[in-house]
TrEMBL record:
<dbReference type="Pfam" id="PF07110">
    <property type="entry name" value="EthD"/>
</dbReference>
<dbReference type="InterPro" id="IPR011008">
    <property type="entry name" value="Dimeric_a/b-barrel"/>
</dbReference>
<dbReference type="InterPro" id="IPR009799">
    <property type="entry name" value="EthD_dom"/>
</dbReference>
<protein>
    <submittedName>
        <fullName>Ethyl tert-butyl ether degradation protein EthD</fullName>
    </submittedName>
</protein>
<feature type="domain" description="EthD">
    <location>
        <begin position="14"/>
        <end position="84"/>
    </location>
</feature>
<dbReference type="GO" id="GO:0016491">
    <property type="term" value="F:oxidoreductase activity"/>
</dbReference>
Length: 95
């Protein structure tokens, strides 16, 4: 999840960063989604996160084995679209 960055960066994330991840993660990556935050709960309020990228794997181990060797390259790409540090969370889809 990326906090407060240039809206033009959403194009970069979709066209470059996610494409790079798909190429590097290979068959371990089952699906990738990018959400653009629109607002907070109150009308007219700013979204907490302007973008979230969701990467789907069959298991935590598949994530670790595919993401781990590419971590430095992925992190080096982040300054191309934001000046904040990413918040990375591992979750499990339940529904």
């Amino acid at each position: 999840m990326y906090e407060f960055f240039n809206f033009g960066a959403i194009i970069f994330i979709n066209n470059k960063h996610v494409s790079m991840a798909q190429g590097k993660l290979g068959d371990a990556l089952k699906k990738a989604d990018v959400d653009q935050g629109l607002s907070g709960a109150e009308p007219g309020s700013q979204a907490v996160y302007l973008a979230m990228c969701h990467l789907y794997f069959d298991s935590v181990e598949d994530f670790q084995n595919s993401f781990g060797p590419n971590t430095e390259e992925f992190l080096a790409d982040i300054p191309n679209f934001t000046n904040t540090q990413p918040i990375i969370q591992i979750s499990e889809v339940k529904i």
